[in-house]
Structures are given as C-alpha cells and as structure tokens.
Design goal:
There is one protein chain. The chain has one domain (3-90). The chain has six helices and no strands. The protein has helices spanning 3-15, 17-29, 31-40, 47-61, 66-73, 80-90. It starts with a helix and ends with a helix.
Length: 91
C-alpha cells in the first residue's frame, strides 16, 4: 500500500495500549519488525515509507527518540575509541 497504510497503522497503535507496547518493542528491534507487525495487523508499507514517516514525525514534533534516530540514521554506532579520535581531530 503506502504512507496512508502506515498512517492508519499509527492511529491503530495509538488507540491500543497493548499494540503500542508491541510497536515500541518492534521499533527498538528493527524496521523489519515494525513492518511485520504492521502486516500482521493488515497494514502493508515498505521500509522506505517507514523511514519517511518517522522523519516527518520527527520534523513535526522537533524531537526524535533514540529508536527513531537509529532507524532514520541507519543505526550506525561509533566505537568509543572512534568517538575520542573524532573529538580530538575536530579540536
């Protein structure tokens, strides 16, 4: 389907606390887990559509959760040594 299906899924999640808990866990796991949960509930959307919707939601609220940020940014985690190195190179 499309972004419309994703928006309908989001509304269903917001209205059902049990489903909201499942969606939160799925969001923390991976985009594929969110897509599978949506499909189980009868909503078909792609990973690209999910990423776009999360980015739009973040832009509208001016806030992005860590899980949302991981999905939008690809979930790249920098090892502690690299963080220290990049800080020293920027100074």
């Amino acid at each position: 389907m499309s972004i419309d299906a994703l928006e309908q899924f989001y509304e269903k999640v917001r209205s059902d606390s049990a489903l909201e808990g499942e969606a939160g866990a799925a969001l923390g796991e991976s985009p594929a887990a969110v897509i599978a949960l949506g499909a189980r509930e009868g909503f078909v959307f792609s990973e690209d559509e999910l990423t776009i919707a999360l980015a739009q939601h973040a832009a509208a609220s001016n806030e992005l959760s860590d899980a949302d940020l991981d999905l939008v940014a690809g979930g790249v985690v920098m090892p502690p040594r690299m963080k220290d190195f990049s800080k020293s190179r920027l100074s």
